[in-house]
Amino acid sequence: MSLAPRVVLVHRTTEYEELVARHGTHGQAAFFLSSRGRDIEEVAERHRRAREALAEVVASVPLTWRQARVERRDLDRFLFAPEDVVVVVGQDGLVANVAKYLTGQPVVGIDTDPGRNPGVLVRHRPRDAGALLASARGGRADELTMVEAVADDTQRLVALNEIYLGTASHQTARYRLGLDEYGGAVEPQASSGVLVGTGTGASGWLRSVWQERGGELPLPGPAEERLLWFVREAWPSPATGTSLVAGSLTASAHLSLTVESDRLIAFGDGMESDAVELVWGQTVRVGVAGVRLRLVS
Description:
297 residues, alpha+beta, six-stranded mixed β-sheet, 21% helix
């Protein structure tokens, strides 16, 4: 007997909930904000909209389906199953947060705050959840390119937007940067880290670096098997160079980084709590991931 589909509802703690948890009560949180010229009602209203959206999505789940809920901070401990349909209720960034833990399950993005969120990944409204769930497993979905980092000790990290390699404090990182292209060029560098991103990431952190560099490299599309990479604030010295600071990676190409600091990390999509740790002498290779995010369109 085959199991009924399971819908996994992904959400996150709201700003209002975080404020009340920190200050103890609604009144104390309101006093804290008012003493700084802020009104808690703005935050409370966003909280109400988020919870109403989640309740509306829950009500639209077919009665024969199984359900599970997972909060953002618990994603690294949650086990997704192949038959799951994942519904992200929140912001665009929450879709990126969950993407690294999936292996082809369809994802439905529900926007809880239209107009405030860009809506790049949370494309739908709560009222549409029922129809989307009915067609999610066999319906139309965009296959979004992801980026992957694999260390020489088999540690692996996948991200939808970008992967950052550097120090946890974003201070100077020392390493040797290598490219499959350009005859396998290798350069010792000191910088504040390396950013490798996808076409989806081109609407976020990657785009800000791209604009800062003058926008000379063409940005990839979300489904295009091409990545952009940038070295942040490379420092020239007698022992370190700055000739390899930006470029693109095709589907078959890789960027390699060999650690020459006591400890570097690699993390994806802002999830520093789920980072790969790298020590002196280790090498990590970054390129287009073999898995894609199936985002229901």
